[in-house]
Amino acid sequence: MVSDETEPRSEDRPPPVRPPAERELADLIHYSHIFSSVVRELLEIKLLRRVSPAPLTLSQFHILKLVSVNGHHQVGEVAGFLGVSSAAATKNVDKLERLGLLNRTPSQEDRRAILLTSSPAGRRLVRRYEALKEERVAPVLAAFTAKELSQLSRLVERFSVSLLETDEDVDGVCLRCSAYYDDHCAIRSLDVRCPYVGVRSDRAAGSRRTPARVRGGR
After folding, report:
1. Residue 68's pLDDT is what?
2. Exposure of 94 in the CB half-sphere (CA atoms within 13 A)
3. How confident is the model at residue 208 (pLDDT cuts 50, 70, 90)?
């Protein structure tokens, strides 16, 4: 018996999906490492040394910036944001407090809870850093159009999300966005734990809960 189904002709078949060439993949990983190192070394470590009168680690500065930009936080929240233990976060907070950059104050809602707030000196340091960062990258940005910068951001976002989507278990992976939070962040479409989103949701609801898992469309 002859089947009604006919084998599609070779010219009708879609081209096979091929993985990127080995050289292209090597270039991608190569420049991803360079990009990450440039941001860390030139836009964070080097600029921090210029604006801070006392030596600060990046973790300590990220704590200060997080509290200065986003308001009061508890030590446990800060530890979750940075992907470190509560003990490590406490040690960093102790140094920032000794330097007069952070303050510890009891919560008015729960006297057992201690909240971290930035001091005027701490906020001035963060503002100096942000101003210096904008000055440093201005000539670099001038070499790109707004469309090119947008395309670059979207491509980096697309690659990051695609890589996360192919992993069987990304829970517990700290994405290290340093609280550069975006309501339209594509990572929210994944089933990953984001402590910053959790705290924002808790505050919007007027309660204090454990940072929740972000639910998305996967």
Report:
1. 87
2. 6
3. very low
